[in-house]
Amino acid sequence: MKSLLSRATPILFAIALCFFHCLPACAEESIAKYVRVPIFFLTDRNLSGNPKQTNFVFGPHRKYLGDCLHDPFLGTATVVIENVDHKPVTEALQRIGWQAVGSDKSEGLISNSLIEGETHEEIAHKFYSSLKEQCELTTDKNVFVFVHGYKNSFRSAAHTAAWLAYNAERPTILYSWPSAAKLRAYSSDENNVEWSQEHFNDMICSLDEMCKEDSAIKVRLMAHSMGSRLLVRAIPILRDRQYITEFAMICPDVDSGLVKHYARRYFNPKGTAKVRLYMSRRDKALAFSQIVHGGYTRLGECADSLSGMLSQVMGNRPANSAEERKEAAADDAAFQETLKLAKHRLQTIDFTEIDRGFLGHNVPAKLICSMSFNEKPGTNLDLVQEESGQRSKLSNTFSKITHLKDTAPHITESCLRVVKSGQQKQKSSKSKHKT
């Protein structure tokens, strides 16, 4: 018997060794190269094709050419995303609709599906009920809302929204307004995004009703470029919504002076939502927008501390009489004290280091999601303090040409800059070596 065991032991050892050696390979094979990521969508674009099939598309025009019926299209879309982070499609992700797909699939939108019903009220009820169910399948009941910018087709906007959903691993709504998706159609896009405002506000009110049914649900609002105008103009109905935990404006193509007007009137320093401005000094698109708008600076160019900007704005309240000046001074002192407590939730984040392409002006999805849930920029990245007002050279040049340089006092408070891990230490080391 002992002889038999002694002969079998090397064989068993070899089998065990092969088994454990194969485990990493098997694990690697279980990670799909691509994944199907579902998103919800709400759009007031025109419909082209048969909505009973999955190959219909949304066009560059408004849904309504006559009377506005306030019944935008509601539905879901599936987008194939390259699994760049090698995520396993876990049970939790499958529950919210993720699917692993083969390596023969290319990226992009593959299907749309409209929610059907006899009335818009019935359709909306189904849409928000389904969204609510998806939220309740996640650990923190968070939902992302993404608004695209200028020169975006529905297809390209869906792809960006899916990248956010991929990094967030949360239900995501794409709000798609009728962008013409053409370089020469900037004025048309400006017109259409303004036209779309009431439909966006309707969505906020519907989300409000959904969150009243389950107070644990939280909404994170994200808007890119020209889409930030919808977010800014919705501030009057957004300011006191406790379920909104974050406002993120990504390279916002909106007049900075207009934002200051809204801040003066509507900012609530006692609120709880994070307010984040993402900007890049590689962003040439906003510099050209500055020229198109007569030289007036876009918010995404400013790179100013948000709390510093608010402090300036709220401290310059107009007053005519001595009594009004006294009242304004008292209010300002109280506001400054309250603002000190709110500074931690007001952030300007300069992501120049990871912005790519000739124009820049990108949506750093991974950075945004990491900041949302971890308060950190992500793997191999750090946040360092940066002097406020670090605008691009192109933006400063255009300000000089148009003689419209901001005359407000320099904001001394700092912003946050994204750098590669270890980069700041290397710079400090070089600086010490030189001295």
What distinguishing features does this structure have?
single chain; 435 residues; alpha/beta; 12-stranded mixed β-sheet; 14 strands; 43% helix; disordered C terminus
Account of the protein in words:
It contains 16 helices and 14 strands. It is 43% helix and 21% strand. It is α/β, with parallel strands linked by helices and 435 residues long. The chain has helices at residues 2-30, 91-95, 120-135, 154-168, 186-195, 197-213, 228-233, 235-238, 256-266, 284-292, 299-302, 306-314, 322-342, 365-374, 393-402, 423-434; strands at 34-43, 45-48, 57-62, 73-82, 99-101, 108-114, 142-147, 172-176, 218-224, 244-250, 274-279, 346-350, 381-387, 414-420. Strand 2 (45-48) and strand 3 (57-62) form a beta hairpin. The strands form two sheets. Strands 1, 4, 5, 6, 7, 8, 9, 10, 11, 12, 13 and 14 form a twelve-stranded mixed β-sheet that branches. The protein has a two-stranded antiparallel ribbon with strand order 2-3. Helix 4 packs parallel to helix 14, helix 9 packs across helix 12 and helix 10 (284-292) runs parallel beside helix 15 (393-402).
